[in-house]
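ENTRY TYPE: protein
CONTENTS: sequence, structure tokens:
***
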Amino acid sequence: MPSMGFVQQLAIGAMMTVKVAVCAYLLALAIGTAFALATLRPRLVTRLVWRVYASIFTGVPSLLVAFLFYYAGPEMVAGLLGPVEVTPFMAAVAALGMVYGAYLADLIRAAIQNVPRGQFEAAQVLLVKRPAILLHVMLPQVLRLALPGMTNTWIVVLKDTALVSLIGLKEIMAYAKLASGVTKEPFIYFMLASLFFLGMTWLTYVVAARIESNTGRGVRALPAAAPRKGKADAL
């Protein structure tokens, strides 16, 4: 039987895991949205910055980025803002947010480009103000198109939080390894950690399905075209 003390530590670690994942995902969403909007128009400087950013953070593993932010981050920040302490939490959030911001940028930009241009033009003809167009016309359609990819990205971010225990962050995997080493029962505590991730994944799909049903209201599927009859069928 698992010790209740270690189970409580796993619960504390689970809360830290969720906190890191949520903060990192929000940072990635902000970065991805900014780059998606900035790269809609082919401006040389913006494209160049995007190419450099995407090449670096999609080509380097998340764990290596976390190591760089945690160990080299204080020196880099100190050169700009003065002495600053970079905690494992800050390094983990920055690393995951920067890495997955590159993936969300492509996803959001593709969703925006797939919204029919006529939707925007029709709203302009009706003299709808631009903020209202973006909020009430474009955003629901972009969310509906990007939701499956955003859901998958959230799950990947959540699972990648297991890597940041290597920089000293006390999340669920760190406590699971500690409990396994002390009790010599690794199966129990790693299984509890697995159940946590499975439960969070299931909850994510439930919430995503509810959001998808809400954003899909009023959207009708096109009827399937009837197959053409060949000459043999006509005879």
Residues 4-38 form the longest helix (35 residues). The domain at 6-216 is CATH 1.10.3720.10 (MetI-like fold). The mean pLDDT is 83. The two ends are 75 Å apart (CA to CA).
